Amino acid sequence: MYDEDFIQETIKQVIKEMGININSNIVEENNYGIFETMDEAAEASDKAWNIYHMCSMEERKKYVDAIREVVLKKENLSLMSKMTVEETGIGNYEDKVIKNRLAAAKSPGIEDLTTEAITGDQGMMITEYCPFGVIGAICPTTNPTETIICNAIGMLSGGNTVIFSPHPRSTKTSHYIIKLLNEALKEAGAPSNLITTVKEPSIENTNKMMNHPKVRMLVATGGPGIVKTVMSTGKKAIGAGAGNPPVVVDETADVIKAAKDIIAGCSFDNNVPCTAEKEVFVVEKVADLLINTMKENGAYEINNPIIIEKLWKLVSNEKNGTKVEFVGKSAKHILSKIGIEVDDSIKVIIMETSKRHSFVKNEMLMPILPIVRVPDVDAGIDCAVIAENGNRHTAIMHSTNVVKLSKMAKLIQATIFVKNAPSYAGIGGKGGMGYATFTIAGPTGEGLTSAKSFCRKRRCVISDSLHIR
CA–CA separation, 146 vs 125, rounded Å? Predict the structure, then answer.
């Protein structure tokens, strides 16, 4: 058996022979991973990876723990959450704090990289999760810091380096969090430029990143357009796309709890999460109770069809999409634009519509919740499957009927299916079991991404040895 000192000296010798100076920064200036051009960012990331992939698992954990620690400092959590809301105008401060805390505390690290071992008369085979190398990650304006935090933890745990391409409308906030993480990594003794980005994020720079030869994997958290683009590059791609999560409430549900849960989930960060409740299908028998209880718990109901149409014209564009200026705005703000003044207790705007209404069919990313009455639970499930638009993202059901719960789960094929809880229980760490992530890959099938999602599976075999049974 070789001792640890011999192994470390051997690694250093290999690195030296590769022409890499492990004690030097890749770029001498203190840029904290922020480069003028995408080419510079990619080259720096590649050089960093040539050092980083020789680091031990213990060192990886040390660096990831440094990221968690710096994010979880109260003053940093507060500042990044405040900056996000101020720069993007999306969501609310209190829920941003919760999301950033979840990303730092509950995103899986190296413990996610399990080893599969098979032994027998012919020896031993192990399969392990190994790095891809340089990853290009595209971040949305809706969840800029949360996405960078959870992706950085997962990607670095997997032994990769990452280039982030933030949305231009969240440049200041994204630069802040990247600098913060790189400062923490430097203090922990990590190689420079494990996390990089460009000074001026743009579509042009994103395209350069996607097509750069040093980038081996692409991860896109955003709408269907960018997911389709990364999937067409010919590179390994993970796509976390849009959703339009439906809710079904049947007559067996705890209706009062369901109403409270739906309002809590729908209003969380002003409905920005793609997991949040977007439309409700409720069995006629319990519809009145559900709606009245919602109104007692922060919902404002619009009954006038003319006002409902006025609201739709206010928040939608000519393509029946969402007007950017209303994404993640509060119910109070939106109502004020149609002449309705309410206090801060109002969190969600509700209205009854048909199942074909545009509010039902389109993901709006704002706290507007259409409600559709259905004759029975089977009709509700059928409507929900149609409204989800085949995104396979998230669905919610409130019921105690196990048969119907199972039916909906099978038919809707969602990546996340939440039963009898607010939608945010499905992202882990807030009212539900499991780990947290803000990159939910329905289109490409990885589901709730974690460190192993950003790795290659490699096999190592030794013949006729290490079988001791």
Answer: 38
SS3 state of residue 139: coil
Say which residues have a Cβ less than 8 Å from residue 30's Cβ, sequence separation at least 6. Answer: none
Crossing angle, helix 171-187 and helix 57-72, to 10 degrees?
Answer: 130
Q: pLDDT tens digit string along 204-246?
A: 999 999 999 999 999 999 888 888 899 999 999 999 888 999 9
Please check whether residue 256 is in contact with residue 268, taking contact to mean a CB–CB distance below 8 angstroms: no
Lookup: tokens for 419:
């039963």
Biggest CA–CA distance in the chain, Å, is 80
Contact in structure between 341 and 385 (CB atoms under 8 Å): no
The position carrying tokens 């993480």 is: 181
Q: What is the mean pLDDT of residues 401-416?
A: 97
Residue 316 is given by DSSP the state B
- Using an 8 Å Cβ cutoff, are 298 and 266 in contact? no
| C-beta atoms surrounding 17 within 10 Å | 8
H-run or E-run covering 138 = strand 134-138
In contact, 377 and 283? CB cutoff 8 Å: yes
66 contacts 188 by C-beta, under 8 angstroms: yes
> Alpha carbon of 165 to those of 195, 211, 231: distances in Å?
11, 13, 16
pTM: 0.90
Note the pLDDT of residue 3: 53
- The DSSP code for 305 is H
Residue 21 has a pLDDT of: 43
Task: Name the residue among 231, 152, 239 with its Cα closest to residue 415.
Answer: 239
Residues 6+ apart with CB under 8 A from 85: 91, 92, 93, 96
Q: What is the CA radius of gyration of the chain?
A: 24
Report the C-alpha gap between 41 and 126 in whole angstroms.
Answer: 35
125-184 per-position pLDDT tens digit: 999 999 999 999 999 999 999 999 999 999 999 999 999 999 999 999 999 999 999 999
pLDDT at 464: 83
Q: Find, among 105, 126, 125, 104, the residue nearest to 115 by Cα.
A: 126
Active site residues: 274
The answer to whether 346 and 299 have CB atoms below 8 angstroms apart is: yes
pLDDT tier, 278 (very low <50, low <70, confident <90, very high otherwise): very high
Place of tokens 């990221």: 67
Q: Taking the mean position of all CA atoms in its chain, how far away is CA 30? A: 30
Q: Can you tell me the distance from the alpha carbon of 466 to that of 125, in angstroms, rounded to the nearest whole number?
A: 10
Q: How far apart are CA 448 and CA 115, in angstroms?
A: 20
